[in-house]
Design a protein that fits this description.
The mean pLDDT is 84. A 6-stranded antiparallel sheet has the order 1-2-3-6-5-4. It is an alpha+beta fold. It is built from 1 helix and 6 strands; from the N terminus they run ββββββα. It is globular, with a radius of gyration of 13 Å. It has one domain.
Length: 93
């Protein structure tokens, strides 16, 4: 995965940020409340991935928001969703 590749879903741009708790990063104009979820739609046949706010940090006038794949089920199921997100994003490059 290219470290600086940007992915656009709707009006938002995301960047892959790795494996340490969060998987995506975006720059927002406002602080997104904790627990907010977004569904990233990869189109027909590829399904959706739900991500949840992991952390926020103000950078100048913007807010850097880190997103994590929503946790539910077993650890193995959660890890599978992370790999699934990575693979779906890689197909967009």
């Amino acid at each position: 995965m290219y470290p600086f590749a940007m992915f656009h879903f709707g009006r938002n741009a995301y960047r892959w940020s790795g494996w340490f708790g969060c998987q995506l990063e975006s720059m927002e104009w406002r602080t997104i409340p904790a627990g907010t979820t977004r569904d990233l739609d990869f189109g027909p046949g590829f399904g959706r991935v739900t991500v949840t706010v992991f952390s926020t940090h103000r950078v100048g006038i913007r807010v850097q928001t880190k997103w994590a794949v929503s946790a539910s089920g077993t650890h193995a199921e959660h890890e599978k969703r992370i790999y699934d997100l990575r693979d779906k994003l890689a197909r967009l490059i």
